[in-house]
Structure to design on (176 residues):
């Protein structure tokens, strides 16, 4: 894969995600009408990256993620909020775990600190690694939708980064 190519992720297995969500709600004695907002998705922009990031969530230290605020507007999606949940899927679109969003902040690319970079749980956990890999990622994903992107874009209103911290809440063997 080149830096300018994005392989599409397969669609999420909606039936399996709905089953996982129902099992989670039942285990917590939460009725569907009282359920928190949730989405089902893979992290990353291609199957191998989705699998790598999922592995870091389930078996590593990944407890944070970042995204572009402008992507939520572009795709007509809701910006994550604390207490939202995410059914995280592998590179084949199969649900593997449920995450609970603990906090959501907005910042520029240049305001991301060492602690947040380490919480993303990727590479050598350094800020330098985080900046290098995320800049490549966002240049690639934005190019795929016909946009040029640079870190300076995150200093403009609507261009900020969305910085999420999360915990695994399901299945039980990964929670805690």
């Amino acid at each position: 894969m080149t830096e300018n190519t994005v392989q599409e992720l397969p669609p999420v297995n909606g039936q399996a995600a709905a089953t996982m969500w129902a099992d989670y709600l039942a285990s917590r004695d939460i009725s569907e009408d009282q359920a928190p907002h949730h989405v089902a998705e893979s992290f990353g922009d291609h199957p191998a990256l989705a699998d790598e990031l999922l592995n870091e969530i389930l078996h590593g230290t990944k407890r944070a993620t970042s995204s572009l605020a402008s992507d939520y507007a572009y795709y007509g999606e809701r910006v994550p909020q604390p207490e939202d949940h995410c059914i995280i899927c592998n590179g084949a679109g199969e649900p593997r775990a449920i995450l609970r969003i603990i906090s959501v902040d907005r910042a520029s690319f240049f305001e991301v600190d060492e602690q947040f970079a380490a919480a993303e749980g990727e590479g050598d956990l350094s800020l330098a690694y985080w900046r290098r890999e995320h800049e490549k990622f966002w240049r690639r994903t934005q190019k795929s939708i016909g946009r040029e992107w640079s870190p300076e874009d995150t200093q403009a209103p609507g261009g900020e980064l969305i910085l999420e911290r999360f915990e695994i809440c399901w299945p039980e063997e990964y929670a805690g």
